[in-house]
Design brief:
The complex is a heterodimer of chains A (252) and B (405). Chain A is α/β, with parallel strands linked by helices and 252 residues long. Helices cover 37% and strands 24% of the residues of chain A. Chain A has helices spanning 42-49, 72-78, 95-108, 123-135, 151-163, 181-197, 209-215, 233-237, 240-247, and strands at residues 4-13, 16-26, 31-35, 57-62, 65-66, 80-83, 169-173, 201-205, 218-223, 226-231. In chain B, α3 (43-66) runs parallel beside α8 (200-221), α3 packs across α12 and α8 packs across α9. Chain B has two domains: 6-30 and 40-297, ABC transporter involved in vitamin B12 uptake, BtuC, CATH 1.10.3470; 315-387, no CATH class. Classes of the chains: A alpha/beta (252), B mainly alpha (405).
Chain lengths: 252, 405
């Protein structure tokens, strides 16, 4: 049984069946990619996993516990972190503060009124955040204003913010969307390093085949709201159903 | 010291010094000189500086840190005043119980209003708080007359019970005090042809203002303060980082409401009456202007803004046509009348016009408020003096805001 289990999930928007009886199982400590052409329901599926959308029917469980009906911050506290398509960071704060905040969230839970303590005195938290920044090669930028970072660095920072919480599952929503080739390759390298250095499960929603085949250990192909195939990358490439989904009926 | 690092301790000490020396610093012009009317060192005005400073510091904790613009903070000010006057009527002329009750009651009010209003953000939040404040104003003005004495306002009377105080046989109204030291009591010192007034009420307000400032400083530097800035920066990321934004904003709202309640209680302690107009939307708007004028999100800005507005309101408004004629008497007659007429639009009754222009200039040219203005001047000054070596700072990103100095 996988760490993330999706069973019989349906989601309908008016006349559009966005997700049609989706079953998915993500094994612990693997990189699992979910691919599919535009409109296949990838983003809808992701939004159902993180509490942004509620499926009409079906169940989503993480580590045996249902995530349905929970708020995003509760789902994060269960051990799921999310990287967004466009990096979501605290632009007004410094890079270091950006990483300190998730450290506090991890230690103190979703709310604590620590109004008369000092951030500076939290040596443990500060060190941890700095170590994390060193891991993603951003320590020299610690005092920079996060909004002034380059796109690639924002992505790195967002990853650092997620990883410092030591999540059991990292969800990545098109982590290289809109990136130049060099930045894409950097991101792939970063993700590989991350995977190699710790026990972590990743679920990647991705468009870019280069990224998917460089990283994924298992791939689910989604088309028109239904999973077509789930297999290892080698078997996906030449799979007739996949080609059909991507290239259209005429090819078959 | 006191849980602060070196820089902040120095900063706090400077603030304490300036606050305590206010009666001297605000009396720079010699008595009987033409500029004596610009002296602001009289008790009533100094008390206002301290009290509205507290109000603005509290407002800034909400608006400056979280970005939630409350347009109803005067409600808490008014509630604080009413609570304090009731304590003065029922319990004792000692101001402490009144001030404590003012903070408790305004905190409870803020809890209820914040709980409902914080379900929305942006302009909708502002409108909700405005609606609540106007409701409170109307309730105080009409429906709740037994509690608030309607449009006359709540006042002391000789028949009040005041159960803790000895019976009042003097036939005149008693004065507010702190364990016997009357708030209105002053010690006058004449020196260098200047009269310095050291007033008990001012020093009481000043000490509370220093405490209020100290707490605000601690909050700015705390993890809680960091979370509030995270709310302002990116709520989506905050939620997906496992933090619940609403309890943080609610806590900030309640703390800020209690600051307003303290300010209201102090207003009533200095001058024991409370009227509904204290809750009107113009009063809410005033604290918004104070904070933005001084610099939202900075530590000193709101205090500066409060002082600035109260100075304009009380000093600038005293410059009438008669005074202006005195100033411009050296001009030929026709021109003199014209200049005086123009100047009179901006002074006296017209001080709001000056304030409006100032506010426009600050918002357009100094988005960081007067604090930013001060910092820019400081930078120019430093560059001119010692020619700061340019270590490629041109390419360095600007430091994060809120790192208040």
């Amino acid at each position: 049984m996988g760490i993330l289990e999706v069973n019989g999930v349906n989601k309908r928007f008016g006349g559009l069946q966005a997700l049609n009886n989706v079953n998915l199982s993500v094994e612990e400590n693997t990189v699992h990619a979910i691919i599919g052409p535009n409109g296949a329901g990838k983003s809808t599926l992701l939004n159902c996993l993180i509490g942004k959308l509620a499926p009409d029917t079906g169940s989503v469980t993480f580590d045996g516990k249902s995530v349905l009906g929970r708020k995003p911050h509760e789902i994060n506290q269960m051990g799921i972190s999310r990287v967004f398509q466009t990096p979501e960071i605290f632009g007004d704060l410094t890079v270091l503060e950006n990483v300190i905040i998730p450290c506090f969230a991890k230690r103190d839970g979703s709310f604590r009124l620590h109004a008369l303590e000092s951030v500076e005195d939290e040596a443990g938290i500060g060190e941890r955040a700095e170590r994390m920044l060193a891991d993603v090669n951003m320590l020299d930028k610690r005092d920079m204003h996060a909004a002034s970072l380059s796109r690639g660095d924002k992505r790195r920072l967002e990853m650092a913010m997620c990883l410092v919480q030591e999540p059991r599952l990292l969800l990545l929503d098109e982590p290289t969307a809109g990136m130049a080739r060099a930045d894409t390759n950097n991101t792939i390298e970063l993700l590989k390093e991350i995977k190699a250095s710790r026990d972590i499960t990743m679920a990647i929603i991705e468009h870019d085949m280069h990224v998917v085949f460089s990283l994924a250990e298992r791939i689910t192909v989604l088309a028109q709201g239904t999973p077509l195939v789930e297999d290892i990358p080698a078997n996906i490439k030449g799979h007739p159903k996949v080609q059909e989904a991507y290239l259209g009926q005429a090819h078959s | 010291m006191l849980g602060l690092n070196k820089t902040d301790t120095k900063f706090l000490l400077i603030v304490i010094f300036l606050t305590l020396a206010t009666p001297i610093l605000l009396q720079p012009f010699a008595e009987n000189s033409g500029l004596a009317q610009f002296n602001a060192g009289y008790p009533d005005l100094m008390q206002r500086f301290a009290i509205y400073g507290i109000f603005a510091i509290g407002f800034n904790l909400l608006f400056g840190l979280t970005g939630y613009l409350s347009f109803g903070h005067a409600a808490f000010l008014g509630v604080g005043s009413y609570s304090a006057v009731w304590m003065l009527k029922l319990l004792s002329m000692n101001v402490l119980p009144g001030i404590l009750l003012a903070m408790v009651v305004s905190g409870l009010f803020a809890l209820v209003i914040g709980f409902i209003s914080l379900r929305r953000s942006g302009i909708y939040f502002s409108i909700l708080t405005l609606a609540f404040a106007q409701m409170s104003f109307n309730l105080a003005y009409s429906v709740l007359t037994p509690l608030t004495n309607g449009e006359t306002g709540l006042q002391l009377s000789l028949t009040d019970p005041r159960i803790l105080d000895a019976a009042n046989t003097s036939g005149s109204l008693p004065v507010t005090n702190l364990f016997g030291a009357a708030m209105s009591e002053s010690y006058k010192l004449e020196f260098l042809n200047r009269v310095f007034t050291f007033n008990v009420g001012y020093y009481f307000c000043a000490i509370l203002a220093i405490i209020a400032f100290y707490i605000s400083l601690r909050i700015f530097r705390s993890p809680f303060g960091l979370m509030l800035r995270a709310v302002k920066s990116n709520q989506q990321r905050m939620n997906y980082t496992g933090l619940a934004a609403r309890p943080y904003t609610l806590a900030a709202f309640v703390i800020s409401g209690m600051y307003a309640g303290l300010a209201g209680g102090l207003l009533a302690s200095m001058d024991p009456l409370a009227g509904a107009e204290r809750m009107q939307w113009t009063a809410s708007g005033e604290v918004v202007i104070m904070t933005i004028l001084g610099g939202a999100g900075t530590l000193m800005g709101p205090v500066l803004g409060a002082g600035f507005i109260k100075y304009l309101e009380n000093i600038f408004s005293k410059i009438n046509e008669h005074v202006l004629h005195g100033w411009f008497s050296w001009l030929p007659d026709g021109l003199q009348d014209l200049v005086v007429w123009i100047a009179a639009r901006f002074t006296g009754e017209g001080w709001h016009l000056t304030l409006g222009l100032m506010f426009m200039l600050v918002v357009i040219f100094l988005p960081g408020g007067l604090m930013e203005g001060g910092q820019r001047i400081g930078k120019l000054f430093r560059r001119g003096r010692e020619d700061v070596p340019d270590d490629g700072t041109g390419n360095r990103p600007k430091p994060a805001p809120h790192v208040a100095e």
